[in-house]
Amino acid sequence: MLTGKQKRFLRSKAHHLNPIFQVGKTGVTDNMINQIADVLEKRELIKISILQNNFDDKNEVANELAQGSGAEVVQIIGNTIVLYKESTENKEIQLP
C-alpha cells in the first residue's frame, strides 16, 4: 500500500503525463489489462482516461484495472485514473 506522502509524490509526477489508454463502452477487457501490465512494467506510472460512452462506475473500473495488472490506484480525478506499479527491471521512480 502507498502512503499519503507517496501518493502525493506520484500525483505530482503524473501531472505532466498524457493518458495512454482509453476505456470505452466495451469496458475493461482481459487484453487491455495485459497491455496495461506490460506498459506499467516499462513506465511504472500511467494515466488512463474513461470515455464518455463508458457508463461503468469509475471507481470499479479503476479497481478492476489495478487488481488485474497488480498496480495501485494513485488517483481518480474526473474521468482520468492514475496507476502505479513498481517495475522489477526498469525501476526509475524512487518513492519518498
TrEMBL record:
Transmembrane segments: none
InterPro entries attached to this UniProt entry: RNA-binding_CRM (IPR001890), RNA-binding_domain (IPR051925), RNA-binding_YhbY (IPR017924), YhbY-like_sf (IPR035920)
NCBIfam families: RNA_bind_YhbY
PANTHER family in alphabetical order: RNA-BINDING PROTEIN YHBY (PTHR40065)
Keyword Aminoacyl-tRNA synthetase: no
Protein name in the entry: Ribosome assembly RNA-binding protein YhbY
RNA-binding keyword on record: yes
Keyword terms of this UniProt record: RNA-binding
Species of provenance: Pontibacillus salicampi
Domain CRM: 1-96
